[in-house]
Amino acid sequence: MSTGITLKNKKTAFDSFFLHQGGEGLAAFEKGMEQVSNKLKEVYSDTGQPFIGKTPSEIEKEIAGIMHFSGEGQSIQEVLEEIEGPVLRNSLHISHEKSMAHLHCPPLLPGIIGECIIGTLNQSMDSWDQSTAATYVEEGMVDWLKETVGYPETSDGVFTSGGTQSNYMGLLLARDSFCDKHWGHNVQKQGLPADFQRLRILCSEDAHFTVKKSASQLGLGEQAVITVKTDEHHRMCLNDVQAVLKRLEEDGMLPFALVATCGTTDFGSIDPLPELDSIAEKKGLWFHVDAAFGGGLLLSHSHRDKLENLEKADSMTIDFHKLFYQPVSCGAFMVKDRRHFRFLSHHADYLNPEKDEDEGIVNLVTKSTSTTRRFDALKLYLSLKTVGLETFGKMIDRTMVLASYAAGYLAGLDNIELKNKHPEINTIIFRYQAETEIGIDFNELNRAIQQTLLHEGKGVFAKTSIDGETFLKLTLLNPRTSEEDIHELMDEIEKTAIQLMNGGLARV
Ligand SMILES: *Cc1c(COP(=O)(O)O)cnc(C)c1O
After folding, report:
1. Is the shortest distance between the CB of 208 and ligand 1 below 6 Å?
2. Do the first three CATH levels of 18-93 and 393-507 match, i.e. the same topology?
3. CA distance to 37, 129, 452, per residue, from 380 (Å)
4. pLDDT digits over 230-248, tens only?
């Protein structure tokens, strides 16, 4: 309801620093946005390579040079000029076609524009009175996700800062639900039960490190995580799951959760969800699926079937800042039975009093381990709305086509050892390995190849270690990366390897 009172004449000394009804704020907003947009356009129009190629100490020094603040302040334009070199041009250009190191995506334009709206509105998702419309947008996006996953009506979810938080939440609910069922013990109120040292979590040896990190933060210690062997495709080995469970039973341990990974960080492998679900069900284990990476296949037209039985999970992790192309950070935690959120809820009189709940007021803090929380749901909403589900699926499918092309191409190259001939999602693992008369330390050489190309800015890819050997990794998330980009990158890798070997590096 408008009061009809205009405050136009009530000027303050701070009017040009905030967006508000008054003309000064509006003009400053418009001007600032235009200047930022022009500066970013200028920088992006000449990002010929993914990285400028400077050393850490060079960049550190340039940044130190801009770390001073004056009493009277500077104009946005002046500061933009000042940070152009040190920050804007020295940053990793993640949207470049040859930027393919980590699960770190080029952000969609509607996501970037979404960030601008999110920052402007600055809603906080903890209580309805701080996110009066945003609460329902997030709830609507959770409903969309429920439907897309195939989750039942009883399910629920909440946006998170990413996979780390979502995995933590999954294991927290799993732990507390087990303690409640098994001992009638309330961890929230009483802390860990006397027998907590017997609690065990199973995941594969290729699972994300945050499973162990969560166990440690949950007071169970990393010792609570038992890693199961993986097969030649880096999928959790079912025989070993059975063997481990049998051994734990014999030792009097209490396994309570089974974590499957849908898209492992290195290989993109997908654990056998239907079989694991049925083991979990039989043994009464909480089944958590870490689909931080693989969850992107929900929108794929040709690979959606790889997520068969995802909807059986008791809880799951989905990241939108990976295969959903959202600016960092954006993720979700989903749980099949929303009643489990009771293990998290705490009523604070100032924020989410129980009376609110009685009156039907939705305070999302009840479902989260965070309090103040970003309105990240909006950028995903804008992205799905503007790109459209058809094109979104095509984008993801394009990266799958590229990954399988890259695997085929690398398999045909001399001096390249390819680890995954049939990539399940978008990652390619390989290393340079030539027959030479001189002894070469190929771990050292591959490490040097990665470092050299990063410092020349010609290609940004990752290194990882498999069975003690150094391998290189391409994570092909960018639907604009072409077959030609892969050829050029592999040429650079070969050239660099030869130069390094001739230069005497890595000789043993
Ligand atoms: C990225 C990733 C995580 C961690 O998620 P963040 O968003 O970085 O916190 C967990 N699990 C898997 C499989 C991942 O790929």
Report:
1. yes
2. no
3. 21, 22, 36
4. 999 999 999 999 999 999 9
